[in-house]
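Example record

The entry below shows one chain as it appears in the dataset: sequence first, then structure tokens.
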Amino acid sequence: MKELVEVIAKALVENPDEVVVTEKTEGKNITVELHVAPSDMGKVIGKQGRIAKAIRSVVKAASSKDNKRVDVEII
């Protein structure tokens, strides 16, 4: 899941070098933390959070076949 979030985020931002994705696993729960440059935060979140929701939906669909719950946090 980490790689998926990283590819999507790097395609959206102007500073792809500053994209950092970390993954924490606790049982069946996985938390993916996405760190971007402050100037790129709006591009990752989108108007009314639409881009962030889309990223979470794609990750959720990809994780459903592994029977794991993935949370994406944009920090």
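Notes for this example: The mean pLDDT is 93. The CA atoms of residues 6 and 42 lie 16 Å apart.
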